[in-house]
Amino acid sequence: MTDGLSRPIRIGRIDYTNVWPVVHHFDPAALKHPAEQVQEMPAVLNRKLREGEIDLAAISSFAYGDSSESYYLLPDLSVSALGRVQSILLFLKSPLEKVVNGKIALTTTSATSVNLLKIIMEKFYGGKPIYEDAEPSLEKMLQGADAALLIGDHAIRASWQNHGYRVLDLGEVWNLWTGHWMTFAVWAVRREAARRNPEAVRDIFEGLTVSKRMAYRDLEPIVSKAQSQIGGTREYWQGYFRNLYHGFGPEQQAGLKLYYQYAHELGLIDHEVNLTEWPVAVAGNFAEPQVRK
Question: Does Ligase count among this protein's keywords (predicted)?
Fold first, then answer.
């Protein structure tokens, strides 16, 4: 039992490859305070954190912005890219000129990517397409649409197929138009959970920080895991993981603030968003976590 709660703290986990460098070496059973891990798709974790069913999770950046008054950010943790991300992909059956005012089939698994697409289509290209939700199957999505958005491992697998479609990497498009980083996911904790259980949150934050550091020292375990579970070559996965960044410094924050500004201007978010990091971590009043041997 954790202080202030009648149950262990609940941690949401996305099992997409892009978060593996943060979570691969993270073991809830090794924490000092009891914790439960809940593994779900991003959209489900977004809802569970918002409704208080879980206490801390990696969530879509858009989901943080939508409920930012309820959350603290865990510092220096994100899924970001400067340019190509290779797993947020728009597959075009029709020419781009038609797509921007045509029909786009959307995966429903990530709010950040869906709203990034809307920003790109409407703010950058001046279009107004029709969006329809669909299950993440490329061929089925494109039966009645001009383009299809896939994310995560579905996007990666589809990018390996010899389908002949033009493919836009939304991270690359964002960077070409803005010059900024794009942050796709952040780690957030509900504010009441952080206030009532600071030691448990500190334990989790330190565990994630150590896990990230271990992964960055040696990418080979997650490269091998990706090859085994998803396929592809060692060279592909080495490039994929090296293209991602899992810190959250001033440059990544500037890019995310611009994303929120555009989302607000388009009415996708009905308020201005502040990035509020967990005050205990910002104060730095705990020991630097050590890498476990």
Answer: no
CA distances from 126 to 92, 150, 161, 171, 262 (A): 17, 22, 30, 18, 13
Residue 291 lies in a domain: no
**Residue 212 domain boundaries:** 9-82+182-283
* Structural domain total, the chain: 2
64 in Cβ contact with 71 (< 8 Å): yes
CA atoms of 1 and 33, how far apart (whole Å) = 8
Residue 1 has pLDDT above 80, yes or no: no
Residue 116 within a domain: yes
Which CATH number is 62's domain given?
Answer: 3.40.190.10
Give the helix/strand (H/E) hosting 1. none
Between CA 10 and CA 162 the distance in angstroms is 41
Mean pLDDT of 247-256: 97
Q: Are 23 and 210 in contact (CB under 8 A)?
A: no
pTM: 0.91
Q: How far is CA 87 from CA 121, 263, 293, in A?
A: 18, 21, 32
